[in-house]
Amino acid sequence: MIQMVAQFLTDSWAALSGAARSLLWPALFFLALGLLVKRRDLLPDMKRAFAESHLNIQISLFNLLLIVPLITVASQAMHAVVQTQDLRLVSPAAWSSLPMPLTIFLGVFIGDFVGYWRHRLEHTPLLWPSHAVHHSDTEMTWFSLERFHPINRITTFAIDSGVLLILGMPPIVVLSNSLVRHYYGYFIHADLPWTFGPLGKVFVSPAMHRWHHAVDPKAFNTNYATVFSLFDRAFGTFRVPGPCDIPTGVTDDMAPTLMGQIKYAFLPRAYRGLSRRKPTVHTAKQ
Q1: pTM as predicted
Q2: Are the C-beta atoms of residues 130 and 124 closer than 8 Å to each other?
Q3: 222, exposed or middle or buried, with CB in 10 Å at 0-12, 13-18, 19+?
Q4: How far is it, in rounded angstroms, from Cα 139 to Cα 247?
Q5: Residue-wise over 19-52: b if at least 16 C-beta within 10 A, else e?
Q6: Among 141, 121, 139, 140, residue whose Cα is nearest residue 131
Q7: Directed axis angle between helix 171-189 and helix 2-37, to 10°?
Q8: pLDDT band at 261, cuts 50/70/90?
Q9: Each residue of 101-160: pLDDT tens digit?
Q10: How large is the average pLDDT for residues 60-66?
Q11: pLDDT in tens, 240-259
Q12: Mean pLDDT, the chain, integer
């Protein structure tokens, strides 16, 4: 028991240290990008987003200390089970016969297809109460990607990684899919007006994903993909009328505090009438 607690604390510290290092470069990148795109407007925007960013930091730290170590252990266990029980649908030899760059591309492409349907599942009454925490950010920035309920973090990991492991993809490809889609996720959450023009029909743009977060009935149930907008186009959920200047957020009654956000998914009232979300006025930017 003592060894388990010690290992958990060690994993938590390692996760915290690793996260601090991994967030440094994205923070510098988006700061430089913000200066380039917004110039004088960057500082007022940062001040306005401070309260939400502060809450995002709290949720991120909570997950890093308590959930990420559990996910690390679960990842190792899932890989062992799939391997020992021979649950792979495709032989690893089939993947290893392909050039590694192609295998990684296929891993990301298939991973985004899986993520598309997993994301749609998160917008159903069963999983929406936990996913609503991510959507509750009213000042969406790149750091909004860290705003995830622990339940949502676990289901995302289990579904996305589990399918790729069952498909027999090498661990390096599973890891590559996670990293590519994670860092691209930072980009599409950034407060940028870019639609990508014609390229937006292939790749998800920041404007496209901002519409997904918009408090606008026309935007509900649209734009689920992370990397390839092809999936939204193929399944009829693509909608990008232009740059998005609609407020973001949800009307779910959850307190804007760490515990308020965490406990929301455990409240019975969170599971009533979830399909009838309506726009709210308190999320409007000043």
Answers
A1: 0.87
A2: no
A3: middle
A4: 8
A5: beeeeeebeeebeeebeeeeeeebeeebeebeeb
A6: 121
A7: 40
A8: very high
A9: 999 999 999 999 999 999 999 999 999 999 999 999 999 999 999 999 999 999 999 999
A10: 90
A11: 999 999 999 998 889 999 99
A12: 89
Q: What is the pLDDT of residue 68?
A: 85
Joined together, the tokens standing for residue 96 give: 């290893």
Burial of 16 (0-12, 13-18, 19+ CB in 10 A): middle
Record the tokens describing residue 136, joined without a space: 């509750």
> Among candidates 130, 2, 16, which has minimal Cα distance to 72?
16
Beta-bridge partners for 248 = 214
For residue 39, the one-letter residue type is R
Gap between the Cα atoms of 201 and 278, Å rounded: 28
CB atoms within 10 A of CB 276: 7
- Report CA-CA distances (Å) from 28 to 35, 106, 235: 11, 30, 36
What does the alpha-carbon distance between residue 134 and residue 152 come to, in Å, rounded to a whole number? Answer: 9
Judge whether residue 39 has pLDDT over 60. Answer: yes
Q: What is the pLDDT of residue 8?
A: 58
